[in-house]
Design goal:
Blueprint (H helix, E strand, L loop, with lengths): L8 E6 L6 H15 L3 E6 L7 H9 L3 E7 L14 H5 L3 E5 L7 H4 L7 E5 L2 H10 L5 E4 L18 E6 L5 H9 L3 H16 L5 H11 L8 H8 L1 H21 L4 E4 L4 H4 L6 E5 L5 H8 L2 E6 L10 H8 L3 E5 L2 H6 L7 E3 L7 H10 L1 H15 L5 H11 L5
Parallel strand pairs: 1-2, 1-3, 3-4, 4-5, 5-6, 7-8, 7-10, 8-9, 10-11, 11-12
């Protein structure tokens, strides 16, 4: 019997994940790497705390190709005062950054190894990393993935008309966080917010540098991440503001909306007739997938990703659900409106209730859009294709 070639091992590290989304995704990535012929070791990051260097080194010594992680897990783990864990290990690490880098600035600044590779879900995130994190030399665009539910319910038999899986926060509470910033930062935040609300193509870092240039403030490129980190509540406010505006427009129109996630009890008192909360704690991703598969329309409100992707969009489409989302450059270029996806204008929400009602009133057209989205999304945005892209980027596959 001839031994098959050992293509090597990939070490997949899981961490803390809201609603188990990223850990479930890590398990899917592990299966896809195995499908490409690699051995895979899946580690729970919480179980190796204090022994990270020893365990990861041991795994990588077994013909390890690279370590795979979602978001910068262990970037700020130090083996001594001056050397980070991954710099000390000196082995290739692929980080799939599915959030905005603004939320991980402190971690991103700790590594200096040229063997750190970063996959970003927005082209603007790649630009930001290249411009302001010179310590990270290898950044690429890598779109989000989509999850497939274990059930496939025919569109006409689905019980939920409109579903939004996500949390809710009153933007006014976030505004209070901004009020509590030091005076200078509070002033900058108050200048940036209307700029970002009026120009959907503007990123927080670009808005900040634009303002600093306008007042002729002398700064270095490495000053920007520190300022962004101090002003991340601005990005959070913009997200909360848009989500609140979309949700309340729908509820004020008397359209029933099913939701799951934290914070919804705040709105339940105002809209007891139209807001259906499945879970105020949120649901595990696998449980959530069964709800998506039983929904006709999945509502999405993009975070501040002006030229990138989101998992909710792809998951909706993979499960034969119409994705109703605000647009950005990536989606407008890559997905055909009213054939694969349905867009609404975040600056003209008065039309949103009518768009929803049109979908519900025209089931034959809705089925066509849902199926068009499913066909478009299959393969290209699945885990198997992502694994191949990562392996190619890491030099493991041609």
């Amino acid at each position: 019997m001839v031994d098959t070639e050992d293509k090597g091992k990939i070490v997949v590290v899981k961490g803390i994940s809201q609603y188990n989304v990223l850990n479930f995704a890590a398990e899917q990535m592990a299966k896809s790497f195995e499908g490409c012929g690699y051995r895979v070791a899946v580690l729970d990051g919480r179980s190796v705390l204090g022994k990270e260097a020893e365990i990861l080194s041991q795994e990588m010594n077994d013909n390890g190709k690279f370590i795979f992680i979602f978001n910068p897990i262990f970037y700020d783990t130090m083996v001594n005062k001056h050397v980070s864990l991954f710099d000390n290990l000196g082995c290739p690490v692929f980080t799939y950054l599915v959030d905005s880098p603004y939320y991980h600035i402190e971690r991103l600044e700790h590594v200096n190894s040229h063997k750190i590779y970063l996959g970003c879900v927005d082209y603007n995130h790649v630009t930001y990393i290249n411009r302001y994190h010179a310590n990270i030399r290898n950044a690429m665009f890598l779109p989000h993935f989509g999850f497939r539910a274990p059930v496939d319910i025919p569109y006409g038999q689905r019980e939920i008309d409109l579903y939004f899986p996500g949390s809710y926060a009153d933007p006014q509470k976030r505004a209070k966080d901004i009020d509590e910033l030091p005076d200078v930062l509070c002033h900058i935040a108050r200048v940036l917010i209307p700029e970002l609300l009026s120009d959907k193509k503007l990123t927080l870092d670009r808005a900040l540098t634009k303002y600093l240039d306008s007042i002729k403030f002398d700064y270095e490129a490495n000053d920007i991440p520190e300022l962004i980190y101090a002003l991340v509540c601005v990005d959070q406010y913009i997200r909360d503001y848009h989500r609140h505006s979309v949700i309340t427009e729908i509820l004020n129109a008397g359209i029933s909306l099913t939701v799951s996630g934290a914070g919804w009890s705040e709105l339940k008192e105002q809209y007891p007739q139209y807001l259906n909360i499945l879970s105020e704690e949120g649901m595990d991703i696998e449980e959530n997938l069964t709800v998506i598969a039983n929904s006709k329309i999945l509502l999405n409100v993009l975070p501040t990703f002006q030229n990138g992707t989101h998992e909710r969009v792809f998951t909706a489409m993979m499960n034969g659900c119409i994705c109703l989302t605000n647009d950005n450059h990536f989606f407008k270029v890559n997905f055909e409106e009213n054939k694969e996806i349905v867009y609404y204008d975040i600056d003209n929400l008065k039309r949103l209730p009518g768009i929803i009602q049109d979908i519900l009133d025209q089931p034959a057209k809705a089925v066509g859009i849902a199926e068009g989205g499913r066909q478009r999304i299959q393969g290209e945005y699945g885990f198997d294709n992502l694994a191949k892209q990562i392996l190619s980027f890491m030099g493991c596959e041609k």
